[in-house]
User: Which sequence fits this backbone?
């Protein structure tokens, strides 16, 4: 049986570790040619190497996806290598960078969060969809929000607001790009075992157990479980799904 993403060309931003790396591995196993991007060449090269070692198709290109020219160059790289782009998982992002009240968030931390989480998602949607429009065959884009977008956590820094903006950019794009055959959806992971979560756990010991206690499914998520949701949204099996906000959080936020 053919894989979920057979013969698709799929970009994964933030593909060097965590959810992005798990997603790149799954997409390749499902038949996609994946292109990984992040600012750390060594990490994306290593993930691409492990995919290729087991017969998958993977390449990588260093890019800071919060910078327009770098995203534009990244998409040109994908198109020149593969002739087109069928899908993109805009997974790059950063956590709250420590808690903070609205009273004491620094302007530089506000900017860093919006650059890494919001600007990066918008720029990826923008440049990927331009390439899809030029090819005229439509496509699928998945952005990455967070459970934080749906919950009012006090002292959570500006992260929740940055992710909430991602949600709205994605629904606006879904409406604008739908007539051109481009689907845009958002995944909102709950707490997921990655390097980002490990940093949080270090600053807040016991958070894993606390989240497990307050999550109906009784545990935090695995990166591979977020990847499964992204793979489906990128695939033709989700052909009538656009503008969706898909919580993958073990029912913690509902
Ligand atoms: N883990 C969780 O509990 C959780 C929960 C909800 C939502 N999320 C979201 O899920 C996504 C992935 O999180 P994760 O836990 O896998 O994080 P992670 O382990 O810290 O990985 C983040 C990835 O994004 C890349 N990245 C960050 N800023 C970038 C930029 N400006 N340009 C290019 N790449 C950039 C990082 O590489 P470089 O730093 O080397 O560039 C890295 O590859 C993020 O959007 C995060 O907000 C995570």
Assistant:
């Amino acid at each position: 049986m053919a894989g979920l993403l057979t013969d698709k060309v799929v970009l994964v931003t933030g593909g060097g570790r965590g959810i992005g790396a798990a997603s790149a591995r799954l997409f390749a196993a499902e038949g996609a040619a994946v292109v990984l991007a992040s600012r750390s060449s060594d990490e994306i090269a290593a993930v691409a190497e492990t995919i290729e070692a087991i017969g998958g198709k993977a390449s990588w290109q260093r890019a800071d996806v919060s910078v327009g020219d770098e995203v534009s160059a990244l998409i040109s790289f994908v198109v020149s290598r593969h002739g087109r782009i069928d899908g993109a998982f805009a997974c790059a992002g950063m956590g709250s960078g420590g808690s903070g009240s609205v009273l004491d968030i620094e302007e530089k931390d506000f900017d860093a969060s919006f650059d890494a989480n919001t600007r990066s998602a918008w720029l990826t949607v923008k440049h990927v969809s331009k390439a899809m429009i030029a090819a005229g065959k439509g496509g699928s884009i998945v952005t990455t929000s967070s459970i934080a977008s749906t919950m009012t956590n006090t002292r959570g820094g500006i992260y929740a607001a940055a992710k909430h903006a991602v949600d709205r950019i994605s629904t606006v794009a879904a409406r604008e790009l739908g007539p051109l055959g481009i689907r845009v959806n958002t995944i909102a992971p709950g707490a997921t075992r990655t390097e980002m979560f490990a940093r949080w756990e270090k600053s807040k010991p016991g958070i894993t157990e606390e989240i497990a206690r307050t999550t109906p499914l009784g545990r935090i998520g695995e990166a591979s479980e977020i990847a499964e949701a992204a793979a489906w949204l990128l695939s033709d099996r989700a052909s009538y799904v656009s503008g969706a906000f898909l919580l993958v959080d073990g029912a913690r936020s509902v």
Q: What stands out?
A: The two ends are 36 Å apart (CA to CA). The beta strands are 9-13, 33-38, 57-62, 87-90, 139-144, 182-189, 192-193, 221-222, 245-248. The first strand starts at residue 9 and ends at 13. The chain is about 45% helix and 15% strand.
